[in-house]
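Hey,
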Amino acid sequence: MKIDIGAPYQTRIQQALADTDVRAAVEKATGRLAERREQAVGAIDNERMRVHARAAREEAIRNLPSLLEQLEHTLTENGSVVHWARNAAEANRIVLDIAQERGVESAVKSKSMTTEEIHLNKALEASGIDVVETDLGEYIIQLADEPPSHLVAPVIHKRAQDISDLFQQRLGMEPSLDAAVMCDTARAVLRQRFLTTDMGISGCNFAIAETGTICLITNEGNGRMVTSFPPIHVVIAGIEKIVATPEDALLLWQAASRNATGQDVSVYFSMSSGPRRSGHPDGPEEMHVVLVDNGRTSVLESGYGDALLCIRCGACQDVCPVYREIGGHAYGRTPYSGPIGSVLTPLMADDVGAARDLPFASSLCGSCRDACPVKIDLPRLLLELRSEITDLGSTTIAEEVAVRG
């Protein structure tokens, strides 16, 4: 059964609970990720890392205006063109203008939750630009015409059989459940696209204000090809992705790697500091950085600024008993599911009531708070949002009882 992400909240929950295949897939995958994470953080002084990681993120958010000004200056000095977008529509318009002015017909993308948030693919496709995801998980859900269901593992809800069936239908693959065969099938398609595309679009894990550097964490190498093969590289970055120094970025890279996938560090950590220099054979001819607000300033001003400390590792999802039962699509039309999504989604909507059900999709057990590498007190934020929603008069009796505890 496919969850109707546009259906009412209760309907989505019922659909998710009725799909035993998805529930089994999500439970197995999150359990495996949580186990790997425990091993990775257990091998170091994790509390010390958490304290330092939080301090780095707090400094960035506390000094956001001045660091953004510094970032614009250093990016420009490095030869990049900086664009500012107040909302999703502006961000999409900026990218579309860049593409149309240069006659771009095709683009490849690396994994980016911010581009999912602003629905960039749909905007480009509506204007006739062919966009292909190059992260394997994102490519699979693009073929399936589905949104991601996890911050790190977008295809966590699918079984091997589901992916095999999809590749047979869309790519002409011979029937096989061999992961290597499926990967090779996708790789053959994507490699050709890297060599022939006009534009590469990436997200941004960290933007270093001091040096004007865009950092990408990947395990497949696609991010490096997206940012270096095409003649034009466009970065889409939420304004909260900024960090002050390279040292902060390296610390957070380690924290993200251990908590997202249970690695000491990811396979790739790509750092882009502008377009190709004169005399250099590699890199894009142009680099554009689109800095996106889209509700982030409102979150900062609302008293929920701690939510912007998030480094998108997905650890809170992997340990959340609610997420592990219903998966990401039950949270609706949002790329941000699980505990952090239940905070960010209503805050970044036009009003809290627009996604009023999500703060109640939590047992408040505290596992998310204990797992978070930057020590975000998610249960507290969820409780405060519940209180605000109750004050709006848009809750059920059961929700009001839950708030009163």
